[in-house]
Design brief:
alpha+beta; 2 domains; 4 helices; 13% strand
């Protein structure tokens, strides 16, 4: 068992400046030895880095949490479609010169402007 203390300071919103502390326990089948502490911490941080990046985009930009769909199969299909769209967006964003004009909204606008031909070009690596 490993215990990690997380500290979060809100940078904006109604809780701006508020600091919270949370203790989380991770359970592992690995032998707990002092030499493994850095490895486990790195693994935990890597997990949350992925969670923070993708889930922030899905929840805030793609408004996944606002979805009213409740059918399990529909949720699965929409989840796959949203994640596929994020993959296409990442490819599109990497080729952009101006990173400031490369938000998910900019991506949607660019795709709508040309009937999504740019999305297909991104998938087939043609411009």
């Amino acid at each position: 068992m490993v215990e990690v203390t997380r500290e979060v300071t809100f940078l904006a919103g109604k809780n701006k400046g508020t600091r919270t502390e949370e203790r989380v326990v991770y359970v592992s089948s690995l032998e707990m030895e002092p030499e493994r502490a850095e490895f486990l911490l790195g693994t935990i941080r890597k997990y949350w880095e992925i969670e923070g990046c993708l889930h922030q985009r899905l929840d805030v930009s793609a408004r996944e949490d606002a979805s009213r769909v409740r059918n399990r199969n529909s949720l699965l299909v929409l989840g796959i479609m949203r994640r596929s769209a994020m993959g296409i967006y990442d490819g599109w964003r990497r080729r952009r010169k101006n990173q400031r004009q490369s938000t998910l909204k900019d991506f949607h606008d660019a795709m709508n402007a040309f009937n999504h031909r740019q999305a297909f070009a991104t998938l087939t690596h043609r411009n």
